[in-house]
Design a protein that fits this description.
- It is a single chain.
- By secondary structure, the chain is mostly helical.
- It has a single domain, classed as MFS general substrate transporter like domains (Growth Hormone, Chain: A, Up-down Bundle).
- It is globular and about 55 Å long.
Length: 399
């Protein structure tokens, strides 16, 4: 008797990945539209460099608190309902952002957006649900490509919407999120089997077990530490890049939006087109280390020149490096976590990344104002070099 063909199962996996890809893409388009706007919108309310970076920090610190909660809750009740609820929250947050009348309301709106955006760990868990371990790097890279496309199309769309006024940008992002909610409601199936949800339901849905479990898994804990250091360095650069190019090159919102578009194009090419083949040839460990090295070089070079070509080279290195490092590290963490705790572990990882994105901008904003425009990048390059050393040790000791 002939064995059943594996093709239908592969086709179902591909269909599920495409559906969650487009869901994440629509979610991140709104994020990409708003991100280049933040320095200019905040300055309209009289914000200092530290105040500007507080918008980045509040968003990420909200993710730090809620990412493990959403991840663990999705382990109990399923990925679909938590994903839908978070998208609905994004609609409300963008509306509040669009109609903000003060910097305080702006800060509150960004915090609400961060709570909603903590759903990225759910998408990662969704990918883990529907992919076998040997295909997980490709699946995580697909989510990274959605993030990159959000950077490609979002800033362009935001730049065009911004010609109608700054408030038009979050308003348009809110409309996209509303469309995303409708599409996800009708198209996104549940990926977590009911049996696995029932096995987890006996425990508490918000406790420290996920963190303790990750801490006792030495390879996972070491990878999480590395992930934290890389994101900490990258976030201090990301939050001050708009301020830097405004001061050094005289960029406005539209030019800054195109710079973020360039970053997104590079990340899409790396994560959507090259990562799967590179992972098969070199493995996630080497790609992780190569990505960190490229980012360290890019950060060190970026502040030195006044030529736009140098800016393009440095930011290109940063985009390639993040495109290699981030999904490779997440794939290794996922592969070393058992199937029953994917949501919780990836939620903790996302939470640590959010903490880094909360602390990094605060340092970057203070350094920009107190030490000079180059210091957020030089200090991030130093920290990335430390992360490279940690990564070499971690890679050697992974099973």
């Amino acid at each position: 008797m002939a064995e059943p063909s594996p093709r239908p199962a592969r086709e179902r996996r591909r269909a599920s990945l495409l559906i969650v890809f487009f869901t994440v893409l629509l979610d991140l388009l709104g994020f990409g539209m708003v991100l280049p706007l933040l320095p200019f919108y905040a300055q309209d309310f009289g914000a200092s460099p530290l105040g500007v970076t507080m918008l980045f920090a509040s968003f990420s610190l909200a993710q730090f608190v809620f990412a493990p909660i959403w991840g663990r809750l999705s382990d109990r009740v399923g990925r679909r309902p938590v994903l839908l609820g978070s998208i609905a929250g994004a609609v409300v947050a963008y509306a509040l952002f669009a109609f903000a009348g003060s910097f305080t309301v702006l800060l509150l709106a960004r915090t609400a957006s961060g709570i909603a955006a903590a759903n990225y760990s759910i998408a990662q868990a969704y990918v883990a649900d529907v992919t076998p371990p040997e295909e997980r790097a490709r699946g995580m890279g697909l989510l990274g490509a959605a993030f990159g496309l959000g950077f490609v199309l979002g800033p362009v769309m935001g730049g065009l919407a911004g010609k109608l006024g700054y408030a038009a940008v979050p308003a348009a992002a809110g409309i996209l999120s509303l469309a995303n909610l409708v599409l996800a409601f009708f198209l996104v199936p549940e990926s977590l089997p009911a049996q696995r949800r029932q096995e987890i339901a006996a425990g508490r849905w918000a406790d420290s077990n996920d963190l303790r479990r990750a801490a006792h898994n030495r390879p996972v804990a070491a990878l999480m530490l590395l992930f934290f250091l890389v994101i900490l360095a990258f976030a201090s650069m990301e939050s001050t890049l708009g301020l830097f190019v405004e001061e050094r090159y005289g960029f406005g919102f539209f030019e800054t939006a195109w710079l973020f578009t360039f970053l997104g194009v590079v990340m899409v090419v790396v994560q959507g087109g090259l990562l799967g083949r590179l992972a098969k040839r070199f493995g996630e460990r080497r790609l992780m280390l190569a990505g960190i090295l490229l980012m360290a070089v890019g950060l060190a070079v970026l502040p030195f020149g006044r030529l736009i070509a140098l800016l393009g080279m440095a930011t290109g290195l940063l985009a390639v490096g993040m495109g290699l490092q981030n999904p490779s590290t997440l794939s290794l963490i996922s592969r070393m976590t058992d199937d029953h705790h994917q949501g919780g572990t990836l939620g903790v990882t996302r939470s640590l990344g959010a903490l880094a994105r909360g602390v990094g901008p605060l340092w970057g904003g203070w350094a920009f104002g107190a030490l000079g425009p180059a210091w957020p990048f030089w200090s991030a390059a130093l920290l990335m070099t430390v992360a490279l050393g940690v990564g070499i040790v971690v890679a050697r000791n992974l099973p």
